[in-house]
Amino acid sequence: MVVLRILFLRVLWALITLFAVSFIIFTAIEILPGDIAARVLGRYATEEMKAEFRRMRGLDRPMLVRYGEWLSGVVRGDFGDSLVSEFNVGEVVLPKLRNTLLLALYAFILYIPFSIILGSLSAVFREGVLDTVLSSLTLIGLSIPEFVMGTLLAFIFGVVLGAFPVVVAINVARSFGEAVQMMTLPAVTLAIAMAVYAIRMLRDNLIEVLESDYVRMAILKGVPMYLVVLRHALPNALVPALNVTALNLAYLIGGVVVVEKVFAFPGIGTQLIDSVFLRDAPVVEACALIISAVYIVANLFADVMTILLNPRLRTAK
Amino acid sequence: MSRKKLLFVTFLALLGLVTTVVGARPWGVGALPAEVKAAEPLIIKFAYTDPGGEANSMDPINQPSGENHVMVNMSYNRLTDLTDEFEVIPELAERWESNEDATEWTFYLRKGVKFHDGHELTSEDVVYTFKRLLDPKRAGDDTVAGSEGAAQLAFLNYDGIIAADRYVVKFKLDAPAAELPLMISIKNTWIVPAGAKFADLHTSGNGTGPFIPVDFKPVDSPHRFVKFKDYWEEGLPLADEIHLYPIVEAATRVQAIKSGEMDFVQIIDFANIAELENDPNVTLLKSGPSTSMLGIMWVDTPPFDDNRIRQVFKMIYSKREVVDVCWLGYGVIGDDNPINPQLPFAWRPEEEVPIGPDYETARKLLAEAGYGPDNPLKVEFYVSEQFPGFTCFAQLLQQGAKEVGIDFQIITSPVQEYWDNVWLKVPFMMSAHVQRPPFSGLSISHSCASLYNETHWCKPEYDELLLKASRTLDPDERLALYRKAMRWITEEGGDIFEGKFFTVAAARSNCTGYVPDIEISRFDVRRVTCKR
């Protein structure tokens, strides 16, 4: 089956890509100006202290040796310890990853119906009042950076209305309901940021499909409009939107630092940035590999879905 | 595969993902044991800035970030504490005395003080703490890279730190130290248990302070601290729990205090003050003059090796304008030397120091030094927005430089890299210091032996002057010597401006007990409380 073969090849390539990514990151941290000892020990550390720190953490050995050691650990499933805090990388990264996944999931659940409904409405009532309003809104949404959007939402719904918290203290949420309520503002911010692309994409594709012969045929046959859209037009218009969605997924995991900062959310983006500043190679590696993996898997998923949704691509060449 | 089947499989996969992620349950894990919960604990939420990331540690020996100071302050005590005017007051030591020539100091410890692990504080703990600060390895701790306070405490004699009795500690010195109680009240001298290593203290701490960290992780939101029931000060601390939230975004801090999600915010940016001033639910709290802002010039490197050029840069801007424009009025001007002119012991010139700018004199000095329209002075000035107003100050200097015909380039560096990539590496840049009393303020970056000699100010006579002052027992005589040093730096040093800004914090109106300290390394929450 062609899908399985594609899957196998892609997974193989993904592993090679991840390996290359890990090496590039390790080298990058090595060449970046400033070093971990200076960052960890602060402004008043002496040269002897820094040298001792490097010796204690084994950083006085050649880079390739350290990379090899780290890699052999990874192969055995051990990502090592943070060079800064000496906590196991899993202990450092996993709670942040869990938070980010929760937020991403919430944002994604909001994003899908939001994009599909608004995109379809825009296309069906194209050039009407609704379409004009939606188009203007998505254009505005495209041009407003997330931190402005987030701050604005936080001000309106957090400060003025008091409906949702502006600081997402997810780690002390007492119940599932409270966690959901806490994450609403950042999730909505992210959903809007992602949906504005998808809505425009979906609208254009749908308009194209709606003007094709088979759709006209369906309409002439007397099929109700909602069924025409749902059953005949949407599945064919979804394919390009799927790729946008795959990119959006990757953004949700790694690119949300700005939104995390606005809502003081303890996620993996902030962890990655902080660790880069500290030059904490093992933690940076773990975060970056997770984000790369999500990126690769999301794209793979989108490709497989595209093939499955489009029967023409299913036969092997 | 049919479309229906595909949708079903996708649905199942998504359901699996939802169950996994939701099943991970971050909520509820923060709940406290039932005994603490019973009486509806008073939880105070505190937002702070400057997170230290994974570098945070509950071991006070090295504290690289503002967040680290905050956490260490909550869990430990020192022998002595300082007021805003650097007056020494008792903390774990009830009283102290010295012999006639200040070569031997005796500290009498408070009795019945408990560490978080339940053992009583004795002189052994104090002796170990100071020995470890001087030389961790020799004191028996091979798990830490070093001690950042060692240089500042180098006047102590390792073998002269003695437990004279269960509650008496003696410091026998090689040379007199007239201000020893002040000199040992630095940001690292928090008392740890005898024998405690970095590996023990790093993740749990163990001090005599009012709060105990719960399940400490270097990076957490929030960091939770609970009241230490056996804390030695009667009736303190007032709060049952303090939760510390790292909030980097200034706008988010403002919203969090306005919405009531936070009870206190440690730092409000000056630009946000107006927004909070008229909010009836928020009280603004202002510290005295705290951290300093200064331009530094290497006095041994052209063109700054010419004192006329140094003087030019000290007079081409208006000191008043720096405070009013860059700090929106929240600060005080400086006298081009490290000591805050508002303090009682500061040197004051007979006539008021000119506020500037004085372009005419500057042009004259430039001409004398050989610079003119055909041969303009060219300089590069490094800056990063470490603290509010830094870039603004650089721009004021640039404007003034333009007036007198100096080609003044500003080079902006990233905040996180500034102290290890720029500081001490370029001859003309912005710097900042916490406020210090004369003995350390005048020596930490101005003595030949200093590791942080940012202006390359090295004059043996100056070092002798400071040494003499530190050994002079008569306070007035000592002050006269320190004032001489201050004046010297003002007139010839490589320090520009050195004004101090205020720290502005915010509290909800129903909350009291927090006073922002002039030292950013001090954080006192013993009396913090809120009416619920």
SSE string of chain A, helix = H, strand = E?
HHHHHHHHHHHHH
CATH-derived topology of the domain at 96-268 in chain A: MetI-like fold
Number of domain units of chain B: 3
Uncertain segments of chain B of ≥5 residues (pLDDT<50)? 32-36
Largest sheet of chain B, described in full? 9 strands, mixed
CATH superfamily of the domain at 96-268 in chain A: MetI-like
Main sheet overview of chain A: none
Mean pLDDT of chain B: 90
End-to-end separation of chain A in angstroms reads 12 Å
Helix share, percent of chain A: over 70%
- β-sheet strand percentage of chain B: 15-25%
The structure class of chain B reads alpha+beta
Outline of chain B, from the CA principal axes?
Answer: globular
How large a portion of the residues of chain A is in β-strands, by DSSP E? under 5%
Radius of gyration of chain A: 24 Å
Structure description:
The complex is a heterodimer of chains A (317) and B (532). Chain A contains 13 helices and no strands. With 317 residues, chain A is an all-alpha fold. Chain A has a domain at 96-268: MetI-like fold (Orthogonal Bundle). The mean pLDDT of chain A is 87. Chain A has helices at 2-31, 36-41, 47-56, 63-75, 89-124, 129-143, 146-160, 176-210, 213-221, 225-254, 257-262, 268-278, 281-309. Chain B is an alpha+beta fold and 532 residues long. Chain B has 3 domains: 35-76 and 209-281 and 509-532, D-Maltodextrin-Binding Protein, domain 2; 81-195, Dipeptide-binding Protein, domain 1 (Alpha-Beta Complex), CATH 3.90.76; 289-502, Dipeptide-binding Protein, Domain 3 (Dipeptide-binding Protein, domain 3, Roll). Chain B is built from 17 helices and 19 strands. Chain B has helices at residues 3-23, 34-37, 66-75, 123-134, 136-139, 180-183, 198-201, 250-258, 270-277, 307-315, 319-326, 359-368, 390-403, 418-422, 438-441, 460-471, 475-492; strands at residues 43-48, 80-82, 88-90, 93-98, 104-109, 161-165, 168-172, 211-214, 223-227, 241-246, 264-265, 282-297, 331-332, 378-383, 407-412, 428-433, 495-508, 511-512, 529-530. In chain B, strands 1, 8, 9, 10, 11, 12, 13, 16 and 17 form a 9-stranded mixed beta sheet that branches. Chain B has a 4-stranded antiparallel beta sheet with strand order 4-5-7-6, with helices on one face. A two-stranded antiparallel sheet of chain B has the order 2-3. In chain B, helix 10 runs antiparallel to helix 12 (359-368) and helix 11 (319-326) packs across helix 13 (390-403). Chain B starts with a helix and ends with a strand. Chains A and B meet through helix 2, helix 3, helix 5, helix 7 and helix 8 of A and helix 1, strand 10, helix 8 and helix 14 of B.
